[in-house]
Amino acid sequence: MTNDPGESGLHFEQFLDDFYVECDEHLSVARRAVLALEASLQQEVIDRGLLDELFRSFHSIKGLSAMVGLQVAEQLAHGLESYLGLLRKAQTKLTSEGLEALVAGVIAIEQVVAAKRDGAPKPDVTELTKRLEALLPSTAVNEAVPKSSAQGAPSGSTSTDVAAKVAMKLVDGGRAWSVHFAPSPAGSELGINVNSVRAELLQLGTLVHSEPRIEAGGRVAFLFLLITPGQDPPQFTMKEGLTVTPYEPASPVVESDAAPSATTDSESGAARGGGSTHLVPANLVRVDLGRLDELMRMVGELVLSRARLQDALQRLHDIIPSAERRTLEEVNLVIERQLRDLREGVMRIRMVPVHEVFARMQFVIRDLVREQGKRAALHLSGEETQIDKFIVERMMDPLLHLIRNAVSHGLESPEERIAAGKSPEARIDLRAATIGDTIVVEVEDDGRGIDAAKVLARAEAMGMAPRSTNDPAALLDILCAPGFSTREEADRSSGRGVGMDVVRRAVEELGGALIVHTKLGFGTRFVIHLPLTLAITDALIVSVHGERYAVPQVAVREVIQIESTSITTIENNELLTHHGRALPLLRLDRFFGARNRQAIAAHHVLVVGDGSDALGLVVERILGLREVVVRPLTDRLVQVPGISGATELGDGQVVLILDVADLKRNSRNRKLASTGERYAGGRHDAANQVKQTGAKP
Amino acid sequence: MSNHDGATTSLILFELAATTYAVPSRLVQQMEMVERITPVPNAPAFVDGVVFARGQVVPALNLRLRFGFERVPYNLKTRLVVLAEHGRTVGLIVDSAREFLTIPTAAIQPPPETVTGLSGKYLAGIAYVDERLLLILDVSEILNFTELATA
């Protein structure tokens, strides 16, 4: 759309956003259906429902693409739709070539749509178009060819095509109408825009075609073709900018696919719904994530206000008579509970099931496995697990990367597997589960495992100075080092050396942790721990040398009070005997660089992690448990070890949030490294001294 | 910097170690008195900590330390100048700041070759206004801290 849309520009932008969302939904449905179809390969009877579903998806994508003038996607969808039409009429059997074309088609449409959205050059689909044409009998090809040479008009649909569609829909009664809609600022104020008009049209009948038009004066208008069940003109509640005229086909019906005889009994049921571009049930509302963020932010502010209220109440504790005080405190508690409910409610809105992400992974694996001549079956579990939409979006690329690594590096060829006494078909597991306030996502393969010795050698060859790799965390540190790659040359899917560090960073930016388990010859398991939601969390407020810190409550297993005498010191490491085990301690004051100051006297220990991973954080005082609104530390100047974000407790001052996972990791590294504290030496000394002598306002 | 006749540049002036510096005012989001800054452990030496600015957590750089001057305690004249550049937002702690000045763009000269030292490399240009020397800072250079390790 190169014209200047003037006042209606906004509508079109909105419309485009909608287009991407809807395409995405239809593509998700298509992906699932294609994967399910794979099971029916070469069978006599194909699941009719799947074909219908897939047909509808491509049909909708076709219609939507035509509306935004995305001819490439429209043509692809059209080709796929035609092929599915043949399958539905049992005129051809689903072959493996056909299935591959469907898979490739879904991927290509996705790429084309993404390219449109990102303003990137359109991917080349000539090869795929040829493959599709080869699958179709000559009549369908003839019809597809002139379309690919269509030029000029924003819509790639020929009038013939439209007429054919109309004829198909008119078979069992009803009437076709041309609806012309010209968006106007006045209408827009009344909520009349292309989206609301389209929604209303869908209520009134079947929308067979829609396209944007450039009218005199460069204004954008939309033309819809509507089929209504009765013979009466449709009655619109919205009148602004709408004109309805009976539809006159421009040319006679030529398409074989559209001949009345083609509409068999079995077709009328499913295909009727197939005309609709809306697959989303009517009781679902699509909400922009930004609006939910805004809502969450407002809830966050409410939480802060309540914290202020509580502070004020506490200050008034001795002044107000106890009866009045009790009422106030009760109200305060009620507000707290209600806020909690509200917060959970908003959180639930943001949650989406992880199955769509998983379906996408399934697709990627299928493609990669085929390309690399490997064999693998994907097992999914916990697809219904709900994850915050924001987190899902951010996890897509890291998961894709882990999957690609699993296929490219993890899996052996069938021959190698047989030689190793394994089944030729490899297994990849993708799991999700909610455990408390954490989401755990796992990617596991039963491939060759990671050869720690090889990784170590490679790291040394690359000039890194790795420590021992007996510890999975240390191994992960090497794998996640920027630029590290075990591949000599990059291939398409992995080995560019930009991978694992990006994966870990993405996970950690979300407040999560990445863990690897691997056994040479048996496979590798990557475990990602993610917080359920990001915005608000419960935290223990502690103080260290007068400075307050927030510790996410989820991470704290236990709080214990200790005497200095109960601490055993072994070579720089302090241990506390707790529950009959030696618990290593990390003194936050030292970790945070106050080594020259007197050690803090009163000790509280927050126990974080469990088993061999447990660590005790030594703090001075515990000030209380609070709901905190988490804000990220986005600037790299202040992205320091052990700190994951910041919050405010109502007094306008920043309180840093401890990164427990990072503290644990650091402690582990210290255990392994023979000398020195990783974060406390070198140039940071200067920082520490400045901090101590530094000016306090 | 363009040299079109009549083109002007708006600057925010501030004082640091008895010298007048300037930053383009379009980069300045706000200026405020320095209140409580939360120290960030193990951050670079010249980062005094973080503060909230417009709901964002923003690092506060002590420009004296950044330029290798001696640290002085904050006082009533100390200001935090919050700058946004290339998607980053940082606060600069300066001795004082209060002046807004528009000068002809043509009055800005490239920094003389002879200006050396740490603060020299942070200069985008210099200008003389009423006999007064303004050192115009290259903000992106100040925010760039890759040379920190060798500094």
Short description:
The complex is a heterodimer of chains A (697) and B (151). With 697 residues, chain A is α+β, with helices and mostly antiparallel strands. A six-stranded mixed sheet of chain A has the order 20-12-13-23-22-21. A six-stranded mixed sheet of chain A has the order 14-18-19-17-16-15.
Overall description:
The complex is a heterodimer of chains A (697) and B (151). Chain A contains 21 helices and 23 strands. Chain A has 697 residues and is of the alpha+beta class. Chain A folds into five domains: 1-156, HPT domain (Four Helix Bundle (Hemerythrin (Met), subunit A), Up-down Bundle), CATH 1.20.120; 158-251, Alpha-Beta Plaits (2-Layer Sandwich); 290-351; 354-531, Heat Shock Protein 90 (2-Layer Sandwich), CATH 3.30.565.10; 536-679 and 687-693, CheA-289, Domain 4 (OB fold (Dihydrolipoamide Acetyltransferase, E2P)). In chain A, the strands form five sheets. In chain A, strands 20-12-13-23-22-21 form a six-stranded mixed sheet. Chain A has a six-stranded mixed sheet with strand order 14-18-19-17-16-15. Chain A is flat. Chain B has 151 residues and is mainly beta. Chain B has a single domain (8-150), classed as OB fold (Dihydrolipoamide Acetyltransferase, E2P) (Beta Barrel), CATH 2.40.50. Chain B is 6% helix and 48% strand. Chain B is built from two helices and eleven strands, in the order E-E-E-E-E-H-E-E-E-E-E-E-H. In chain B, the strands form two sheets. In chain B, strands 8-1-2-11-10-9 form a six-stranded mixed sheet. In chain B, strands 3-6-7-5-4 form a five-stranded mixed sheet. Chain B starts with 7 loop residues before the first strand and ends in an 8-residue tail after the last helix. The model of chain B is unreliable at 147-151 (pLDDT under 50). Classes of the chains: A alpha+beta (697), B mainly beta (151).
